[in-house]
Design brief:
alpha+beta; globular; binds iron/sulfur cluster; 4-stranded antiparallel sheet
Length: about 180
């Protein structure tokens, strides 16, 4: 089974090969994290400052020559269904972990999965300061945390980047 078929089987509607050079960390995106409107700055292991500097993000991304862009959508009330949004993010996260497994089974072990949105495997990320992440093997950072302008990225692919009140679409990728 090829990767697109495997993704489709998981309910991942978009699976597009791309050059990771398209992923360019931008200072203005990192500055949004510093503004901390989402409340995750310093409170989430997969967000700044824990994910390293912008330069480190560039170095990490530069270690890969191939990528697949992945998207998963769910019908829900995108303004009010907060638990549904979290659940759909976790669903996407688990699907991406399954995609990673697909690559490993193909003999590709140098890979990096980037999620859509911050890791939501736990209800509260940093519960106690100093306590380590309980799932380091499953936690994944996001394109946004790597300072990628995801809306502009979707534009480059000609993909819909509008907000819809009746559905959520998560975007992530696997680099290898
Ligand atoms: S697995 Fe839990 S503690 Fe670890 S980064 Fe994700 S939400 Fe945070």
């Amino acid at each position: 089974m090829d990767i697109s078929d495997f993704a489709r089987q998981l309910g991942i509607e978009t699976c597009l090969e791309f050059d990771p050079e398209l992923l360019v960390p931008e200072q203005w995106i990192r500055d949004l994290c510093l503004e901390n409107k989402c409340g995750n700055y310093g409170k989430h292991y997969m967000c700044p400052p824990y994910v390293g500097s912008l330069e480190e993000s560039k170095e990490q991304l530069g270690m890969f020559r191939h990528g697949v862009l992945l998207q998963y959508s769910k019908t829900l009330d995108a303004r009010n269904d907060h638990e549904g949004l979290r659940q759909s993010r976790v669903e996407f996260h688990n699907k991406i972990l399954e995609m990673e497994e697909y690559f490993r089974n193909e003999g590709i072990t140098h890979l990096w999965a980037l999620m859509g949105g911050s890791c939501a495997l736990c209800n509260v990320c940093i519960d106690e300061p100093g306590e380590p992440c309980p799932h380091p093997d499953k936690a994944r950072t996001s394109l946004e945390a790597m300072a990628i302008d995801v809306l502009a990225l979707l534009d480059k692919f000609g993909l819909d980047n509008n907000f819809h009140i009746d559905k959520v679409t998560w975007t992530g990728c696997i680099l290898y």
